[in-house]
Every structure is written in C-alpha cells, then in structure tokens.
Amino acid sequence: MKRGPTERIKVLQTSVWNSEAVIADALCNGPELEYRDGSGNLRFSRWRRFMGSYEVPALPAPMFVVQMGGKSDVRFWDRDGWSEATTFPGAATLIPAGHKTRWLVDGELDVITFSFGAEDRRDRAQAEFSTFQFAYCDPLAAALSEQILGEMCQGAATNDNDYLNSLTAMLSTHLLAGRNVAGRTRYPTSGFSSYRIHKVMNAITADPAKSHSLTELAELAGITESHLCRVFKEAMGTTVHAYLLKARLDRARQLLSRAELPMSHVAELSGFSGASQLARAFRQHLGETPSHYRARMF
C-alpha cells in the first residue's frame, strides 16, 4: 500500500533520515522486511518492486545492494540513456553516498539493501564505496545476504538474535575490507552476459591448447560455473565445451597446412592428448581424418 502525501510527511517527521527513509519516501512505500543489528549500526532491508521506472535521490551514506530474485533485465540511467549492462539475480551493486540513481525494472524485482549507521563505520564505508559499481559478482556477500534474508523470513529478525548479528557483522567486515575483488572494476560498457562471454571466447581462441577448465573460465568471467554454462548456451547456442572443441579443431586445421609438422605435434599444439584423439574428433565432427584433410590441402 502506497503512502499518501500526509502520511509521507508524518513518516519524515518521526523517522531518522537515513538511506532507507530516503528510499521509502521516493518509492512511497517502505521495505517488506527490515532488520537492525543489536548495536543499531547495521541495517538490512528487503524491497520488492514491479515493472516501472524509479528515481532514488542521493543517499546520505553508501549502500550495498544484492538482487535476490526477479528478472535479469534491470538497468540504470547512465548519463544520457539506459545502461546496456543489466543486473541479474545474485549480482551486487555499490551506491556511493551522494549519488542519485534511476532504475528501469522490466518485471518483478526482489532486492536487499545493506547500510551503515554509526559514524565510524559510515566514514570507512564512504572511503570504500567511493565509486558506483553495477552488477558485479561477490559470491560471499551474496551468500551472506541470502542467509540473512532466510533467517529474517523465518521470523528471526530480533535485535537479540546472536546468529543474525554475527552474519551482518561478517557481511559488514567483508564489504569494508574491500574483498569484493570482482567489484574493483566499473560496470562493463556492453551487456553483462556478452561482456563476460567475450572474455571467455577470447581466452579460448587465443590459446585453444590450454586446458581451460570450467572453473578457470568461470573465474575469468567473474561468475559461477553454472551461470557461465547457462548464459553461454543462451548467447552462443552451444556449450562451453563444444566451443572449445571447435576452437581446437580450427587450430588443428591451420597447423595441418604445414606439411612438415608431425601429426603428434599438431595434436599437442591444438590441445588434443594425442594423434588418435585428434583423428577421432576430426572424423566425428568434420567427417574425415586429419591425413585426408592435409592431403586435400596440397
């Protein structure tokens, strides 16, 4: 239920003017769930919105945001238009103090916000969260946020809950320590998925002979292995493994044009374990043997 103008004025007169109050006033509605730790210094809130464009004024203190659910097409206003980059469930965003934001939501949006109340924490957060960072991966922060939200949904959001206080303290320590390495870079200039997919594609193409484990490629992209598999298949119409195999076959065909290169070396330089594996892959995917392919080249 939205607040009317009179009720909004009453809220502002009786509430502390913190970041959550600013957002509640802008949205004409407060958070669905909220929790303050035992000291009252840390605030954790859950917000759910639906399709629309939302403007949020500059916040008095930095805020950490994690999308918990909803669609993957949430954008922010970037100077003169909506960002090409989009957020997604599990993505984190850092909003510095004094930074106005505007959001475009295409469908339901479910997010949590985490902010600092005490002056000493706020000063540290101010230094740590000095740059707007959009839709990056911080797996630990996302996992802690999900655990905190789960406890809140079970009715455990009381100030004397030691477990919740420990979780929020851990999240605060993690964020203020600047451990979110993936967030040190600014948001990409292209769409989230394509940006990371191209990093994976370029790495494979540059050196097909490398092992390129799924774990390594996911770390390179800054997302989980399951998320990489999903977005890669959606964007490319093939799996990461199939793309790697194709890159190795392409490299092998290039090497086969050098008549002096032994077949075992062709296999090694293109990422196959041996000449027999190379021959098997050639027959299965290209319908001929490497030797036949080389003979056609000369």
Write out key terms for the chains shown:
298 residues; alpha+beta; Jelly Rolls; Arc Repressor Mutant, subunit A; 12 helices; 9 strands; 16% strand; disordered N terminus; transcription; DNA-binding; transcription regulation
Q: Give the quaternary arrangement of the chains.
A: single chain
- Which structural class do you get from the secondary structure elements? alpha+beta
Envelope shape: elongated
CATH class of the largest domain: Mainly Beta
Measure the end-to-end span. 76 Å
What is the string of SSEs from the N terminus onward? HHEEEEEEEEHEHHHHHHHHH
Name the CATH architecture of the largest domain.
Sandwich
State the low-pLDDT regions, or none: 1-15, 181-191
Radius of gyration from CA coordinates: 25 Å
CATH superfamily caption of the largest domain: Jelly Rolls
Amount of beta strand: 15-25%
The largest sheet is: 6 strands, antiparallel
Number of domains: 2
CATH topology of the largest domain: Jelly Rolls
